[in-house]
Amino acid sequence: MNDAVIQLEDLALRYRLARNRVTSLKEFMIHMLSGSLEYSELWALDGIDLEVQRSEALGIIGRNGAGKSTLLKVISGVLKPTRGKRVVRGRISPILELGTGFDYELTGHENIFLNGLLRGHTRKSIEAKVDGIIEFSGLEEFIHSPVRNYSTGMMARLGFAVATAWVPEVLVLDEVLSVGDARFLKRCHERLDSFRAAGTTALIVSHSPLEILNHCSRVIWVEGGKIVADGEPRDVVGQYALFAGDTATAALVASDLTADSGIAGSPAQPTSAGKAPKATDSPTPDPPTQRQTTDA
Fold first, then answer.
1. Alpha-carbon gap, residue 256 to 237, rounded angstroms
2. What order of strands is seen across the sheet that includes strand 170-174?
3. pLDDT category, 208, cuts 50, 70, 90?
4. Which residues touch 102 (CB under 8 Å, ≥6 apart)?
5. How far apart are CA 264 and CA 251, in angstroms?
6. Least buried of 72, 233, 243, 271, by fewest C-beta within 10 Å?
7. Over pLDDT 90: what percentage of the chain?
């Protein structure tokens, strides 16, 4: 019996990108009725096969536009894959974008309840946690101010505090640990360590090699919507650092590796299909977004 918490098989997600420059609804309808609308296809993910075991901390690295955040959104159920199978066993607690689930006109205190309810917790459960959430975030002086006045770091602190107030079965973090002061980051690291000890499965996207090396037991490197490396953190981070031209990180990692680690030589190159997709202004997922636990 497979006890993997996350299973992805031949997972792919396609975006349809409009080639026509349309500036109004009227212009769009004219193009549509005349049959002149043209689209190009971008495979943000293509042929992803992945299993993540319980209590595993999986780091995901790669260049901007490589498909890391898209992969987290598919795993979290925010986007439905175009093809393939997705199975997630357990409740997911995702922090995908700063401010997700917050109403900027409400206060931080009110947003704690709003965000907690959106995550499936009862009001009674939130009331029991609210003091701890405020204390962990360190926002006591600002908790009754509208969230629109918060800085990026304050938003991250409040979002992380709410999402991690309950021990999640699957925790998904997308560049959340890249903001915040040293004191708050220390709290985050301690909480992540406690979650791992409690059996939480964590998926962490970060551009910080130290974050990945310190908190992940396994790392995958995503390039062009494909997984081009999967293994021990130092091995994969070293390969990616050489590929990206980050000589400082490559030297740091290689200093603790044996000669046969696969990092001391020339950088690992992605497959021919592993070219980074071009950035787009407003891609439209195809098919429409739906939230599911299992997709086939």
1. 12
2. 92-95, 170-174, 201-205, 57-61, 218-223, 226-231
3. confident
4. 111, 114, 115, 147, 155, 158, 159
5. 9
6. 271
7. 46
